[in-house]
TrEMBL record:
<dbReference type="Pfam" id="PF24879">
    <property type="entry name" value="DUF7737"/>
</dbReference>
<dbReference type="InterPro" id="IPR056639">
    <property type="entry name" value="DUF7737"/>
</dbReference>
<feature type="domain" description="DUF4132">
    <location>
        <begin position="416"/>
        <end position="594"/>
    </location>
</feature>
<dbReference type="InterPro" id="IPR025406">
    <property type="entry name" value="DUF4132"/>
</dbReference>
<dbReference type="Pfam" id="PF13569">
    <property type="entry name" value="DUF4132"/>
</dbReference>
<feature type="coiled-coil region">
    <location>
        <begin position="432"/>
        <end position="459"/>
    </location>
</feature>
<keyword id="KW-0175">Coiled coil</keyword>
<protein>
    <recommendedName>
        <fullName>DUF4132 domain-containing protein</fullName>
    </recommendedName>
</protein>
<feature type="domain" description="DUF7737">
    <location>
        <begin position="725"/>
        <end position="828"/>
    </location>
</feature>
Length: 830
């Protein structure tokens, strides 16, 4: 029998190849008893015996139906026994039966007898998980069934009655059970639909539509599908669709505990694949709903489903639902669809989704005879705001102001006094509810416009002056940012916009004014093209005038080619060998337009521990290598907590496609382009992103989270300043004389030195880490934000917030005798 089992293992490893040797020995003993016609004995493990019994039905790769009658009787007897099966047993038995059916075993009732008997011991939810695809109703689709799935149709056809009995809950389970029969309870959102919306979804007039939604298996709806949805739609189901999709837009992934054979584990779940199908049907149905709310809500759904678990990232919570929402927006068309699509373009980083959005915008733009960017310029909503960025509505006795600067709602009572919160008398007024919806849309649009304007800066987009005036400076939303930016005529004067009569002029730091001709080309000013003297003049001017820019423009860091990079020639090591918090670094890079980074403690042999972040800019592609570091056991052999940065290389668009092969025939990429040939602005912006990622996510920022890299923590936390930190120093040079603590603070090469009454402190301008004089003892202070720091004027919206952190620590330590936090005072007196 040993030889028989060994031969069986070699030819049918798909069934027993993974078994432990001890289990194989037990199976050999069962084989011997079976051949002798003897029972297994009183000490038998009936679960193990049942697994062996099912394997006795295997007929080999040739399949067929001529099973040994004794083996059939054996399986029937085990199926009738009361054995303490586990869900794990059921999964394994179902898998083995499926493998036999896949290989041509045709007596489905016999090979599934035991798996079905075991599955009946569990509740409906566990049954559905065990049966998986076998329990799903066959797709009502004209799509051709893949050849590898054809065998499953035979099983479903032959055992339809038994499968139905296993997965369909009886009527006494009520509306929730009826919904669960359609939307299996595989995730918290499906549970919400069954329990909270069950009575409405299971209503006789709605249930047919729910079942129709559950046929949404293709990538887009057919005309026939939409016609059926429109026929089944009622006014009540329209409001139901709106409610459910609103809940979906607010839904986030949840931790779900799973268990099997005494083991428990936790999974993070957004939506199960089976839940996605009917939800996609709801999204498709929006195509036949003619309501104002549809467009905005689909944009919200696309943003939620198109971003990662932290609201950003190159991976989607659900790419299928994102593309479904984008597809409906595209087919609805019109100017109203442009705004939500622009929001998706600004926030979502998944390349497949962005291609879909870009294609849609290009199609709409082409119809209007415009480019995609020109279309976006012309379709930014004004939300009824005046030139001052304010819209006023009278609600009851109160004046309500919608303000772009904030943005916020402000309330003026009958006495003319402005109050922060909505007065009780109007809180439930529908007009206020509408304004709150508008405020939400305004916030989203402002974020998208800030993103667009920064992209225009780094991509050196050019307009004519007439377009800048009409679509940017005069616009009540975009103008809030555009009027705080420096504009420039190429090879000509640059200036901040100043209104004069019926138009705009540009004013430079010396007060010189110019009004470009209407057709004159104009672009956003970038310090990479300017002298150091001009940059200093603009920085001083912004602080003197109190101009706060939506992003760093005048104070933007510039990264020029260094001698070290001239020596390495085709790659930059400027930001290599930094230890970063991987999840945070990936999220930040995704937000900055980088894609592709996915590394962890898996598949080491195939390079799962190594990867690259990729950014495409102005015909160039930058690649920044990363590799995993840290204990894989501490990370559960999953996504890494920490990574180490590597070199950055640049390629011209299309250059990588010309990769060659080494002597062994392995495909290898071409060497990167010489850095001296990379456009200075492209090089600078890529390295700026890298500097920002290091400056925000380095473990050198926090001694408590070094992950075993204490040496790196010290070298980074108190070492030489990067370009971002040097810019921070430049800002502080201008700010310090204006601050209350000016007589207690001074700047050194790498530190802000603050004199308290108890000690003197040195705050590193790169990491924010603190050393105490005279012995350079480390002081741990958790970053905080106080009112005094918040009141300090900064001439730009911060990336990462480190300048605010340093100022907060400086204000705190300058008044160290007032510190009451024991976690700090112990360190001061220790």
């Amino acid at each position: 029998m040993t030889a028989e089992l060994d031969a069986f293992t070699r030819s049918h490893g798909y069934l027993v190849g993974y078994l432990e040797e001890e289990t194989k020995e037990t199976y050999r003993r069962f084989d011997a008893l079976f051949e002798q016609g003897l029972p297994p004995g009183p000490e038998v493990d009936w679960r193990e015996y049942g697994h062996w019994a099912l394997l006795k039905l295997n007929l080999g790769v040739e399949g067929g139906h001529d099973h040994d009658e004794r083996a059939l009787e054996l399986v029937r007897s085990v199926a009738e026994r009361d054995i303490p099966w586990t869900a794990g047993d059921a999964h394994v038995l179902m898998y083995r039966a499926g493998q036999m059916a896949r290989r041509g075993h045709t007596r489905y009732e016999e090979i599934y007898r035991l798996p079905f008997a075991v599955t009946r011991r569990f509740g409906f939810q566990e049954r559905r998980e065990i049966l998986g695809w076998l329990g799903e109703r066959r797709r009502r689709s004209s799509a051709r069934t893949p050849e590898w799935e054809l065998w499953a149709e035979g099983v479903q056809e032959a055992l339809a009655g038994q499968i139905e009995e296993l997965v369909v809950e009886p009527a006494e389970h009520g509306p929730a059970g009826a919904v669960r029969n359609v939307i299996w309870e595989g995730d918290p959102f499906a549970r919400l639909l069954a329990e909270e919306y069950g009575p409405r979804l299971a209503a006789p007039e709605v249930l047919p539509l729910l079942r129709h939604w559950n046929t949404a298996h293709s990538t887009k709806p057919s005309g026939r599908w939409l016609k059926t949805a429109g026929t089944l739609l009622t006014p009540d189901t329209v409001s139901l669709v709106r409610e459910i999709l609103t809940r979906l837009a607010a839904h986030r992934e949840r931790k779900v505990t799973r268990g099997d054979d005494g083991h428990e584990w936790t999974e993070t779940v957004f939506l199960h694949e089976r839940t996605i199908v009917p939800v996609r049907g709801m999204i498709w149905t929006c195509e036949v709903i003619d309501e104002r709310w549809v467009t905005s809500l689909l944009g919200d759904v696309a943003l939620t489903c198109g971003t990662g678990s932290n609201g950003m990232g190159s991976t989607c919570r659900s790419e299928k639902l994102t593309n479904a929402a984008v597809g409906v927006l595209a087919r609805r068309g019109g100017p109203a669809a442009i705004v939500p699509l622009a929001r998706v373009q600004a926030k979502v980083r998944a390349r497949s989704v962005l291609k879909n959005v870009a294609r849609t915008l290009d199609e709409v733009a082409e119809q209007a005879g415009l480019t995609r960017e020109q279309l976006l310029d012309r379709t930014v909503p004004a939300f009824g705001l005046g030139q001052d960025g304010i819209r006023e509505e009278r609600i009851g006795d109160y004046l309500v102001r919608l303000c772009a600067d904030g943005p916020a709602l402000r309330f003026v009572n009958p006495a003319g006094r402005t109050v922060k919160s909505a007065p009780q008398a109007i809180r439930r007024d529908p007009a206020l509810a509408d304004l709150r919806i508008t405020l939400k849309e305004l916030k989203q649009t402002l974020a998208a416009e800030r993103f667009r304007l920064e992209q225009a800066l780094i991509r050196e987009r050019t307009w004519n002056w007439r377009q800048v005036e009409e679509f940017f400076l005069d616009h009540p939303v975009t103008g809030l940012y555009a009027r705080a930016l420096i504009w420039q005529v190429p090879q000509g004067q640059a200036g901040l916009p100043v209104r004069t009569g019926d138009g705009w002029e540009l004013t430079d730091p010396r007060g010189r004014r110019t009004r470009p001709e209407p057709d004159a080309p104009v672009l956003l000013w970038h310090p990479i093209r300017e002298t150091a003297e001009d940059v200093r003049a603009w920085r001083d001017h912004l602080l003197e005038r109190g101009v706060r820019q939506p992003y760093k423009q005048a104070f933007r860091e510039v990264y020029l080619l260094t001698p070290a990079e001239e020596r390495t020639r085709t790659f930059s090591n400027r930001f290599a060998e930094h230890v970063l918090r991987y999840g945070q670094a990936k999220a930040l890079l995704n937000q900055r337009g980088w894609t592709g980074l996915a590394i962890g403690h898996w598949d080491y042999e195939c390079g799962g521990d190594q990867g690259e972040a990729i950014k495409e800019l102005s015909g160039w592609r930058a690649r920044w290598g990363m590799h995993v570091t840290g204990d894989p056991r501490a990370d559960g052999w999953d996504t890494a907590s920490f990574c180490v940065s590597e070199q950055i290389t640049f390629y011209r668009e299309g250059q990588e496609k010309l990769s060659g092969h080494d002597r062994m025939g392995n495909r290898v990429a071409l060497e990167g382009a010489p850095l001296a040939e990379v456009p200075p602005l492209v090089l600078s912006e890529v390295l700026r992103d890298a500097d920002l990622a290091v400056g925000v996510t380095s473990v050198g920022l926090d001694q408590r989270a070094t992950g075993g890299h204490e040496g790196y923590w010290h070298s980074y936390g108190f070492g030489e300043l990067t370009e971002t930190a040097r810019t921070r120093r430049d800002v502080l040079t201008r700010l310090l004389p204006r601050l209350r603590i000016a007589d207690r603070a001074e700047l050194t090469d790498r530190f802000l030195r603050v004199r308290g009454d108890l000690r003197t402190y040195r705050i590193h301008l790169g990491s924010g880490n603190i050393l105490m004089e005279p012995n350079d003892a480390y002081l741990c202070v958790v970053p905080g934000h106080d009112r005094e720091t918040a009141s300090v004027f900064l001439p730009f919206e911060e990336d990462g917030g480190m300048l605010s952190v340093i100022l907060s620590k400086a204000f705190l330590l300058a008044d160290d005798t007032s510190i009451t936090d024991p976690s700090i005072t112990r360190q001061l007196t220790g």
